[in-house]
């Protein structure tokens, strides 16, 4: 009966799993520890972590990247203690998409798993299958909180400092233009921080005075910011529309949930009902109050990829994507819930905590004290299981591929580029277009009865027809347009019947002709068989004779082979003796060669010494020759300089001579200008001497 506590569950409580938890897929299950008490839980995309009162760490689930820290990549279906950390007392844990963070009582931070974007904070991008220590936090003081998302990580200190690292392609770690950071970096908003949460591609933080900041991917309104704030989405932006002080925040795949003085605000994607507003809302770009929690009794919120959990006074409410039973509403209730729905199975329990993963939920609960009696429920505590109509029927022609394409989250786009090892392949195909060319003419009356129409296809959670949106855990199929398929099948069956009748008539005529021809062939074949039998008998006799001859030949060959083998053995013995003699001779020769080699080595050493001395002499001679050549070059250069000076003096003298001649020719001192050169050669010196 719903709400009854099982007698075998201890007072220390148990861990309940729902959905695809790997512990018990699609079936609600539970477990507890005999000698320890579970204190904290954390969920990643496909794995789960648990911390006990004694500080032990248990993990289970998918392990494709080594996120369980067990030293391997083998998936684990039951809680397994990390033996490598038995000497440490684990206090905090956070699970991302494919990695895990922990913090010990001594303030040591460890990380394990996928590291493609540096989300382990170890300064590189190499994945780890066992927990490795982050030395950075040894000098940062005690750690208050850890958070992890899709390839991002965060650590919050007691003093209010926030450090983040990993992928920043969408600004989800708030470090501005940086695209990737493989070591912790401080993110500051000018005041101490008290809470942090990491989604798939966006993050949120809360300050000590109750201010909410969001940053990262800005699509679908998951940041809850005004239009003028969206350009600055790569750094923390203040959400101004929530007036009450915020105490907690949780980030999902495409939506955000904020807890403010017991009230719950949601914003972002809501196509699965994860916003909890009671009706189908594709997205909400501003924070909206969830009416069910307006009385201020909520104390904890958690988000999965497309579902939400809220705890109030020890009761658990869930809403959103209900596939695989991850909402905890019963083994037969896998429908989407568009408003908060009470989990009746926990009426006799005090729910301590709830965490949501990619497609599962884990709840930590203890049985209520027997003296407390029944839980008193108010009118609005219990809500009917609510299933919205299929999205296409609800929105009619208003939904097209372009509208849904705009809603693709960064996570879906990333998975199209980088496929997960466990992701399902394509599960839909495009139906032919309903054009006149593809439709058959009207049907004529037929004796066949059309089978009854199948029930309408169930809601397609995730990818709508033609590939607009696909959830990674899609398991439903699409029927297509049934009446068109039926009409095509009936029409094709009528055509097939008429063709079969024609074929049968033609086949009968062909059979008669074949029977006649086969009779003639039988007679011919019988004659051929008789002749073949006679030929086979003759061939057998000949083969027997040949076998006898071959046997005689084989006996003779064996005798000859025996004789030849004996001769060969004798020859081999002689050869061995000769080889022994040759070996002795070779040994003697080796001794002689060794002596000769020693003599040659001595001669070579003497020759090498002589050559070295000659080389030294040649080097000295070459140096002397080089000095002589340098001197000769210098002398030649000096001679060339002297020659050049003489030539320049002669040139000057000739130019002066020609200048005076020209002057005299023009009638200097009244002399005639038309005399010959010989005249000037005689007169000029006299003239110069007179001057």
Give me some keywords for this one.
691 residues; alpha+beta; Methylamine Dehydrogenase, Chain H; four-stranded antiparallel sheet; 28 strands
Structure description:
By secondary structure, the protein is of the alpha+beta class. The protein has 3 domains: 14-391, Regulator of chromosome condensation 1/beta-lactamase-inhibitor protein II (Methylamine Dehydrogenase, Chain H), CATH 2.130.10.30; 393-441 and 458-507, no CATH class; 647-691, no CATH class. It is 31% helix and 24% strand. The protein contains 5 helices and 28 strands. It has helices spanning 391-395, 401-405, 410-417, 482-665, 677-690, and strands at 14-19, 29-31, 38-43, 47-52, 57-61, 76-81, 90-95, 99-104, 109-113, 128-134, 143-148, 152-157, 162-167, 180-187, 193-198, 202-207, 212-216, 237-238, 248-251, 255-260, 263-269, 283-289, 298-303, 307-312, 315-320, 337-342, 349-356, 360-367. It has a 4-stranded antiparallel beta sheet, with no helix packed on it. A 4-stranded antiparallel beta sheet has the order 3-4-5-6, with no helix packed on it. A 4-stranded antiparallel beta sheet has the order 7-8-9-10, with no helix packed on it. A hairpin with a 4-residue loop joins strand 12 (152-157) and strand 13. The longest helix has 184 residues, at 482-665. The chain starts with 13 loop residues before the first strand and ends with a helix. Residues 384-408, 419-430, 444-450, 456-488 and 668-673 have low confidence and may be disordered.
């Amino acid at each position: 009966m719903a709400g009854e506590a099982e007698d075998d569950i201890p007072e220390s409580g148990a861990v309940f799993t729902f959905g695809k938890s790997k512990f018990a897929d699609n079936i609600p299950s539970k477990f507890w520890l005999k000698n320890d008490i579970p204190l904290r839980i954390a969920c990643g995309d496909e794995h789960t972590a648990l911390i006990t009162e004694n500080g032990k760490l248990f993990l289970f689930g998918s392990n494709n990247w080594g996120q369980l820290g067990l030293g391997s990549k083998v998936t684990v279906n039951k809680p397994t203690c990390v033996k490598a950390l038995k000497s440490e007392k684990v206090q905090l844990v956070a699970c991302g998409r494919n990695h895990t963070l922990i913090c010990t009582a001594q303030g040591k931070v460890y990380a394990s798993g996928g590291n493609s974007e540096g989300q382990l904070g170890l300064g590189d991008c190499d994945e780890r299958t066992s927990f490795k220590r982050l030395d950075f936090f040894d000098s940062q003081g005690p750690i208050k909180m850890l958070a992890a998302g899709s390839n991002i990580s965060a650590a919050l200190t007691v003093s209010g400092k926030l450090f983040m690292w990993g992928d920043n392609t969408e600004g989800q770690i708030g470090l501005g233009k940086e695209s990737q950071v493989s070591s912790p970096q401080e993110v500051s908003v000018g005041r101490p921080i008290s809470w942090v949460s990491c989604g798939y591609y966006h993050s949120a933080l809360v300050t000590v005075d109750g201010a909410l900041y969001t940053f990262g991917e800005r699509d679908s309104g998951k940041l809850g910011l005004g239009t003028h704030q969206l350009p600055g989405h790569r750094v923390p932006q203040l959400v101004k529309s929530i007036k009450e002080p915020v105490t907690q925040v949780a980030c999902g795949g495409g939506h955000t949930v904020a807890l403010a003085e017991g009230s719950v605000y949601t914003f972002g994607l809501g196509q699965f009902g994860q916003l909890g507003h009671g009706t189908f809302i594709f997205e909400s770009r501003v924070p909206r109050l969830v009416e069910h929690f307006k009385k201020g009794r909520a104390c904890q919120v958690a988000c999965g990829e497309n579902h939400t959990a809220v705890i109030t006074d020890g009761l658990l409410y869930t809403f959103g994507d209900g596939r695989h039973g991850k909402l905890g509403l019963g083994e037969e209730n896998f429908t989407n819930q568009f408003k908060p729905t009470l989990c009746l199975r926990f009426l006799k329990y005090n729910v301590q905590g709830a965490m949501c993963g990619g497609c599962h939920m884990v709840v930590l609960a203890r049985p209520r004290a027997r003296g407390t009696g029944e839980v008193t429920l108010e009118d609005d505590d219990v809500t009917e299981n609510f299933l919205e109509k299929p999205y296409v029927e609800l929105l009619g022609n208003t939904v097209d591929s372009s509208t849904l394409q705009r809603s693709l989250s960064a996570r879906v786009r990333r998975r199209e580029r980088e496929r997960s090892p466990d992701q399902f392949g394509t599960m839909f195909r495009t139906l032919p277009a309903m054009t006149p060319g593809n439709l058959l003419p009207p049907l004529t009356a037929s004796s066949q009865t059309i089978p009854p129409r199948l029930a309408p296809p169930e809601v397609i959670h995730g990818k709508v027809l033609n590939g607009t949106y696909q959830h990674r855990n899609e398991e439903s199929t699409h029927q297509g347009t049934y009446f068109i398929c039926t009409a095509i099948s009936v029409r094709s069956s009528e055509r097939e019947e008429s063709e079969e009748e024609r074929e049968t008539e033609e086949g009968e005529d062909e059979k008669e002709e074949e029977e006649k021809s086969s009779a003639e062939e039988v007679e011919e074949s019988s004659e051929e068989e008789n002749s073949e039998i006679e030929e086979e008998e003759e061939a057998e006799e000949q083969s027997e004779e040949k076998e006898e001859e071959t046997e005689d030949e084989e006996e003779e060959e064996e005798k000859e082979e025996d004789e030849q083998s004996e001769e060969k053995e004798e020859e081999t013995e002689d050869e061995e003796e000769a080889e022994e003699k040759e070996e002795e001779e070779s040994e003697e020769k080796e001794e002689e060669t060794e002596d000769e080699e020693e003599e040659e080595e001595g001669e070579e050493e003497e020759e090498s010494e002589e050559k070295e001395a000659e080389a030294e002499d040649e080097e000295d001679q070459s140096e002397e020759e080089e000095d002589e050549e340098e001197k000769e070059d210098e002398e030649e250069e000096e001679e060339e300089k002297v020659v050049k000076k003489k030539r320049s003096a002669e040139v000057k003298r000739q130019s002066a001579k020609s200048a005076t001649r020209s002057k005299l020719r023009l009638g200097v001192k009244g002399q005639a200008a038309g005399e010959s050169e010989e005249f000037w050669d005689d007169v000029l010196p006299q003239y110069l001497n007179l001057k």
